[in-house]
Design goal:
Blueprint lengths: L1 E4 L4 E4 L8 E5 L10 H19 L4 E7 L15 H9 L3 H18 L7 E4 L4 H13 L3 E3 L3 E4 L15 H6 L15 E6 L10 E3 L2 E5 L3 H11 L3 E7 L3 H16 L4 E7 L2 E3 L14 H6 L4 H9 L7 E3 L1 H19 L10 H12 L4 H12 L6 H11 L3 H4 L5 H15 L3 H13 L2 E5 L4 E5 L2
Parallel strand pairs: 3-4, 3-11, 4-5, 11-12, 13-14
Antiparallel strand pairs: 1-2, 6-7, 7-8, 8-10, 9-10, 15-16
Helix pairs in contact: 1-9, 2-3, 4-6, 4-7, 6-7, 9-10, 11-12, 15-16
Bound molecules: zinc ion.
Length: 452
């Protein structure tokens, strides 16, 4: 299996350190508002990753975090904590806000049929471990204190520029004028923030006799250390996290404890919606409830995501979503052929699909392999199960057999047609259609499909 590793900028053969426990960490959502459809492409792609790992015989130990504290509206350690912002907007406590949007996120996660991570960890459950990590960094002389909090002196961590291939000289030259005068280097970042005089920050913990809260990157470093233990095999996240969030996670974890954080870094690209960046002002921030209002299901959206590649920028439109829906329904009718005809040998198709998926999760290529045979082949139960294992489209449960009464009517209609009793044949066809089943007539016999 090959994966594109951001760390090396190469397509590499994936070899887990322990095939019985492939350790994977996925940066999860900040739960301060409803997730939009753009947020979920990543989770569909990482679900595909888990499914392909399993096809290769590996077993995953996967952690997803839920950010419920410390993620600021700006990457530059100023700006508001997103959780506090959400709470003020809604007149609720930060804890209530976290609960509401975490539950909404998980409900959508499950409706998409995504494999449940081994562990889901909330940032606020790891504050003491965060503090232990801060102490370890401090003991190594990597931190300094400012009026705003404890900052990481990135000049003291030689690998700092590695993941993002940052040009630190260039960064220094381009530093903004308003860059905090107390920071030693432009890339330095807050590991732990103090609650400032007069600042309204509900989530706060005492450390060194002052109230404060963790900087955003800290939770990922801590949770990996506590729940998976570094080095892990795969770390996933959005491509926007490369230069700041993931770079800082590495500096924190590797700086504190000396072990490599992750062997392989996978980054998903983003989607635009109707040709534009997703933004409130453009009115294109669609949530699943907006898709449902237009008659689309979570599975239709998932089908649309799987038609693309995690590294490609993609554009979402309702026209394309409708096409994806049709494709999914075609697969469902393909799956229903197993009730009607002699099945064919699908081993070559299965091998071709797996070869595509093992090539850096090429789901579009894998679906193209499936399309090549949909018109000619008849799958058996095992093959449909395999499709569900790799794509997670619930084809088995969505393609039930029809009842005996309908089967009898289909047989009677076939007989009436042969006897050239077209009035009877047409009447029976209508009765069958009323039960949600359509008939496709071939030269010898007809095949039924679900009518919608
Ligand atoms: Zn993270």
């Amino acid at each position: 299996m090959k994966l594109y590793n951001t760390l090396t900028r190469k397509l590499e053969d994936f070899v887990p350190r322990d095939p019985q426990r492939v350790k994977i960490y996925t940066c999860g959502p900040t739960v301060y508002s409803f997730a939009h459809i753009g947020n979920f492409t990543a989770y569909v792609y990482w679900d595909l990753l888990i499914r392909v790992l399993r096809q290769n015989g590996w077993t995953e130990d996967r952690v997803l975090n839920i950010t419920d504290v410390g993620h600021l509206t700006s990457d530059a350690d100023d700006g508001e904590d997103k959780m506090e912002k959400g709470a003020k907007r809604e007149g609720k406590t930060v804890w209530e806000v976290a609960e509401i949007y975490m539950n909404d996120f998980l409900a959508n996660f499950r409706a998409l049929g995504l494999i449940e991570p081994t562990q889901i960890c909330r940032a606020t459950d790891f504050i003491q471990a965060d503090i232990a990590l801060v102490e370890a960094l401090d003991a190594k002389g990597l931190l300094y204190e400012t009026s705003d909090g404890l900052y990481y002196d990135t000049a003291k961590f030689p690998k700092y520029a590695e993941l993002a291939r940052l040009d630190l000289e260039h960064l220094r030259a381009g530093a903004r004028i308003d860059f905090s005068a107390e920071k030693r280097n432009v890339s330095d970042f807050a590991v732990w923030k103090w609650v400032r005089e007069g600042e309204d920050h509900a989530m706060q913990w005492e450390y060194r006799g002052r109230m404060g809260y963790p900087g955003w990157h800290l939770e990922c470093a801590t949770i990996i250390h506590e729940r998976l233990s570094e080095p892990i095999d795969i770390h996933t996240g959005g491509i926007d996290h490369v230069p700041v969030h993931h770079t800082n996670e590495i500096a924190e974890l590797e700086g504190a404890y000396g072990q490599k954080m992750a062997d392989v870094w996978l980054h998903n690209n983003f989607i635009t919606v109707e040709g534009e960046k997703i933004s409130k002002s453009l009115g294109n921030v669609y949530e699943f409830k907006d898709l449902q209002a237009k008659g689309f299901s979570h599975m239709d959206y998932k089908m649309w995501v799987l038609q693309g590649h995690y590294q490609s920028e993609r554009n979402f439109s309702f026209e394309d979503l409708a096409a994806a829906r049709q494709r999914r329904l075609n697969y469902r009718n393909f799956a229903a052929l197993r009730w009607q005809k002699q099945t064919t040998d699908m081993s070559d198709v299965k091998a071709a699909i797996l070869a595509q998926l093992n090539n850096n999760l090429n789901s579009a290529g894998a679906l193209a392999e499936l399309d090549k045979c949909v018109a000619q082949c008849v799958p058996d139960e095992d093959f449909v199960r395999f499709l569900d294992e790799v794509f997670g489209l619930n084809l088995i449960t969505e393609s039930p057999d029809i009842n005996a009464e309908l089967k009898e009517k289909i047989a009677q209609r076939g007989a009436a047609k042969k006897q050239r009793d077209f009035a009877k044949a047409d009447a029976l066809r209508e009765e069958i259609a009323a039960a949600g089943v359509a008939l496709l007539d071939g030269a010898e016999s007809s095949v039924w499909q679900y009518a919608d």
